[in-house]
# Entry
Amino acid sequence: MADVWQGPAAPDPAPLTARDWARVVRRGLPLGLLVFGGLLILLLVRLFERPFYGLRRPVTPYITQGVCRAAFVLLGIKFDSTGTPMLGPGAVVANHASWLDIFALNARKRIYFVSKAEVAAWPGIGWLARATGTVFIKRDRREAASQITIFRDRLAAGHKLLFFPEGTSTDGLRVLPFKPTLFAAFFDPALAQTLHLQPVTVAYQAPSDADARFYGWWGDMAFGPHLLATLAAQKQGSVTVHYHRPVRLIDFTDRKALAKTLEDTVRGGLADHGGT
# Structure
């Protein structure tokens, strides 16, 4: 939702060897079949799910969750989670390090991402986002009232809405300041009395022979080379998703205090894994 974080210069990707390309093919083809095959199944199921359930999705989120879990198996990346995902509708906020976050955050709990409207038009990623129920919002104050209505309707349907309050992805070693403006919509009277928010920390461990920022995706890094580097890795690392205790919105008087509390919690979780 904000400018791209530049941070320290990204390492130049090493040229891929013949063995690297072999790993790309061995992992990439099954992964592509999994993701786009799962998308096709999801769209077919949604044809029947939508007329009967509308916003509620009793079946398709399980397809997304299954695809995301299987993706880590195919990639060879160890996935783990700690803590307890909250029950009932509410919002989830997490740090943002990589496109891999989409798989990591869906693998344990069925959630719906909130993204900037521009993503809907991106080839490939936009199609996946729309199919999986992503909420697209515009960075325009004139849209605030309609966005509150959208949040209210989605939460009433039992959805967990996932936000990245940093507004951009990083190298995975830090948590950027959370932007308080994101939380303004939550203080609508229709939401404030009952809404719970759960902070979540996503922590990556790079392969033992790689740069600690290996899974991070930031600055001017292109998606294609980063994907190839991930697929080509001889050794893979791991990702841990930590669910912290939810907070009640009613316990906070303003959005700045809420943003700071959630930020500190997420940053503390990353510090436990060696981040800052």
Remarks:
- Residues 18-271 form a domain with the Glycerol-3-phosphate (1)-acyltransferase fold (CATH 3.40.1130).
